[in-house]
Design brief:
Shape: globular
Largest sheet: 2 strands, antiparallel
Strand order of the largest sheet: 1-2
Radius of gyration: 15 Å
Distance between the termini: 17 Å
Number of strands: 2
Order of helices and strands: HHEEHHHHH
Amino acid sequence: IKRDSKRRIFFSPLQGEVASQILPTERTEGLDSIVLLYNGRLYEQSDAVFRSLILLGGFWKFIGICLKIFPRIISDAVYNFIARRRYRLFGKRDFCRVPTVEERRFFLD
């Protein structure tokens, strides 16, 4: 949210009402990955990360384009490697930060 100066990215839990209306049921069962819906197309895993970086613009767009050159099998393997170890790499908190009033408008139920 902090880096999205164009305010183009919104968030929804995968188990939420919005996600259940947008995503096909067979895609949501057991899904534990990032999903991005952009221009009517669904992006998952590393593709969702790269497209999100591109949407942020500026330097992030450059990073997203550079990372997109890797074959998806490699980028998804790296994505899964990091996802499985995310708490060891980035730490784990006992609670989630509550969004501010300003930030709440970027969360869909």
